Amino acid sequence: MSDLDKWVAQLRACRPIPEADVRELCHKARELLIEEGNVVTVNAPVTICGDIHGQFHDLMELFRVGGDVPDTNYLFMGDFVDRGFYSLESFLLLLCLKVRYPDRMTLIRGNHESRQITTVYGFYDECLRKYGSANVWRYCCDVFDYLALGAIVLGASNTLSPASESSAAQEYADMNLEVEVCNADGVSTFQFPRQSRSLTSSSDPQPRGSPNGSSSTAGHSSPATGNKTGPPGSGASGSSGGSVGNPAGAVLCVHGGLSPLIQTVDAIRLLDRKQEVPHEGAMCDLLWSDPDDIDGWGLSPRGAGFLFGADIVKEFNYKNDLSLIARAHQLVMEGFKEMFDASIVTVWSAPNYCYRCGNVAALLELSEDESGLGVFARSNGDVSRSDGGQEKGRPNGFDTLEGPARRYRVFQAAPQDSRGMPAKKPVADYFL
Amino acid sequence: MAAPSIPNLLSLRGSRGIRGHGRGRGGHHGPGRGAASHDSTIQGTDTDAAVSRLSAVELGYLEDPFAQYFVSPDAQITRRLPIINRGTFVRTSALDRLVDQFLRQHVFGESALAGGQIQENVHNAQIISLGAGTDTRAFRLFTSKGRKWNQGRDVPPYELWRNSIVYHEIDFPRIVEKKLATVRQTSSLKEALPDPNLEQADGSWKSCGRPPNGSEFWCHGLDLRDLSRETDLPRLDGLRTDIPTLLISECCLCYLETSEASNVIKFFKDRIPQLGIVLYEPVKPDDPFGKQMVSNLAARGIRMPTLEVYKEPKDQEDRLRAAGWEVCCAYTVEKAWEEFILQDDQQRVDSLEGLDEVEEWKLLAGHYVIAWAHPSWDMGMRWDDNDMKYY
Fold it and tell me: Which GO terms describe its molecular function (chain A) (predicted)?
């Protein structure tokens, strides 16, 4: 058994590995990450995950629901550490898997992968507590500096493959689903078929179904959301081109969102990322910004990054031949939330966040386009392929590319008794 | 985003040891636990509040020179997460502001001058703080030198108070005894409440010297539930029934059975015609966050019976209406942050610590409510700057 496999096994049991091993692991990881660009290219199929925040047992639940590594190709959009009790084990396990299966595991940086934030929100203290010194924290922070800032998913299909092996593939293809929501056991709780573009009114600037309806099993569009046709929490627009089998546009994955300083995916590639997350500027914005129901850009209540509206997202997607932006960073009670006609989605993967919020978590599966056209057929944001938006920029009426078919698997917090700690224990703070 | 010092979050996790192999505070909390045990758990929430207060003070959210004396020096760590500090700030500031407004009206305001004559050292208003525990409001009030401790608004220095007040605190005998001991040991506390003297075997004490502005301070050691009895009611020395009074329950009545809580309010309402009230309690137990809150608190042995009855902010208004007040108002802490806290203060607080917990803040702060009512307060309780001219 190699060191790596030994570490994986030990970390899977939620036991930290010795300091010297952490050092070696971080060194290996850095060598690997240094070769990655700021924007990693990932081919579908891929399972996209949001914030983890040291909730190790819930990460195990995520692997149970989404499939194990390397069987499933994972993309984690940052915020591995802070807040939960097991930031160390969670991050090191993901890092181990990254080193062991580099092609099946993509890690991009979240705003908590930062020296400054981890001193306030728990990871620093956890390392100190578990090792008696800050060395391990330092090793990890050095790795943080090398994490990619984003990823581009290519070759995602606009049809779904079956959620579980019991369903026939043809049956699925016939249903032509745009969005499917499954529970933790893989049982489909909601299906939304793709509709032809002509059936819906032209692009509705309102975010659809926000926040994610009262439950993900609430059935078809409620009267309150007007002509929204997608399932609760999704922005399934029905505004697809409709021809089955065509590859969908590329998907940009980033922890926070867009930046007023970034007009193209290529511009992200030009940043110097190997540093602590700055307080401002493009790199900071990518990790800190949030979509919001505003026009244009707005100040963020977080004190870093910006708020950006539907117009910003649609223009960016149009200029960069993106069909979707997947991001994390914001707690959503239903685990995922599509906004702005499904041009952007928030994926949140920390159930019962901070052991206090009572939310469910989700992961997003994009399946592979069987036609094999996905990777090459389009100018899809891959390196040097976007034209910087110089020629195509139109003030109005950005045609949205048809989005990839999306399957959300929604899951709950791991049962208390799997956590290896007393079930009844004061954990979360309240105002008393 | 400043992190002035490296915090140690260990204290936030109770007595839990490394990697979760620790002991929960107070051992196993089962449904069959005795009432006495529940009482002591509830008393423990006061320690929680005191630590939160000190955390907010040390990080610059609040100005309160007295907070430090009520946190045991053994408590190694006092720093809370930004979201908790902000909550402590909003809750304290909002209550301070309501108290200020009440005092402005009855002590330094126009109605205090209603008789046409300014009478020195007449007690024109009364405050009764239920389950006050280690609360420092009385100290702050009695020593106010017009410093900006409240929302950037000055409170008149006590020399300018036209009249003084009667201040009562009520809590378990054990708690008030402890407070007495702390005051006796600490010179700056004694300055605010001179000559603290034990009055009764139940731990009740009063400040026998005159607090700086001539106010009166009483601290009663009793179980609030005794006030809900039909007969054999405890006596509350020094209680005035003839002056405008503000009853404050800052996360206190919520631990009583609903009927007991109602009876406690009734006890004062029946005796004091000009009674106002300020409640601070959790709400919304039924949404996912609320359910988790109830279950997490239950794991700590904390039960809040009134939460099951007054579920929404509006229910708290209805509760006050049913208790006999006509004009009532209820704001969630989230709304209080938006509407009570001045923009300057919002910006100041934003700059103290980064709040990377915006959604969580909305959730948490949306689950606490400040409700208030008074027979002679203005309709709607607008915080408009015009009623700030008390000099």
Answer: metal ion binding; protein serine/threonine phosphatase activity
